[in-house]
Design brief:
alpha+beta, four-stranded antiparallel sheet, two-stranded antiparallel sheet, 2 helices, 24% helix, 16% strand, elongated, binds zinc ion, TFIIB-type zinc ribbon-containing protein
Length: 153
C-alpha cells in the first residue's frame, strides 16, 4: 500500500468563506476558498489575523476539517480491512477443511458534511496582496493581520 491521498471539499458560507483556526490562540477566522486553495499562487503558510504568528497552512484547518479528514481515513482503513478479511474468509471456506471462518464487516464511521454558516465577522481586504479575510473585529483588538502576507490591515 503506497501513499493514499484522500481529498474532500469544504463548502464555504454564502460568500465562499471557509473557517480556519489559529493553532496558537485558537481564534477562528475565515478565508476565501478560492484564494487559499489557488493553484496559481499556492499558499503554504498562513498568518493568524489576530496574533500575527505564522505556520504551515495545514496547521490552520479547523477542528471540523481535521475531524472529517480523520473520519475519511478511518473509513478507508475499514474498507481495506473488510476487503482483506472477506477475501480470506472466502479462500478458507473454499478449502474443504473443518475450519470455517465468518466475519462481520466493520461499520463505517459517520462523515458529516462541512458547511460554514454565515457569521458576524467583518471582511477585510489586504492592500498589499488584495486577498480577503473575515475576522471578528472587537473593540479590544487593535490590529488585524493579513493571513497571507502578515501585514497590518
Ligand atoms: Zn492566533
Ligand atoms: Zn496580504
Amino acid at each position: 500500500m503506497g501513499n493514499i491521498t484522500l481529498s474532500f471539499t469544504v463548502q464555504g458560507d454564502s460568500e465562499g468563506y471557509v473557517t480556519f483556526e489559529c493553532p496558537y490562540c485558537g481564534s477562528e477566522f475565515k478565508l476565501q476558498a478560492g484564494e487559499v486553495q489557488s493553484d496559481e499562487e499556492p499558499v503554504l503558510e498562513l498568518f493568524c489575523p489576530y496574533c500575527g504568528l505564522a505556520k504551515e497552512k495545514s496547521a490552520f484547518w479547523s477542528k471540523d476539517v481535521r475531524d472529517k479528514a480523520r473520519a475519511l481515513a478511518e473509513n478507508y482503513m475499514i474498507e481495506e480491512l473488510n476487503k482483506a478479511f472477506g477475501k480470506m474468509a472466502r479462500s478458507i471456506n473454499r478449502q474443504k477443511s473443518i475450519i470455517k471462518m465468518t466475519y462481520k464487516p466493520l461499520k463505517k464511521v459517520y462523515v458529516k458534511e462541512l458547511k460554514n454558516a454565515d457569521t458576524a465577522e467583518t471582511e477585510f481586504q489586504c492592500t498589499c496582496c488584495n486577498r480577503r479575510v473575515k475576522a471578528l473585529y472587537c473593540a479590544g483588538a487593535s490590529k488585524i493581520f493579513c493571513p497571507y502576507c502578515g501585514v497590518d490591515l
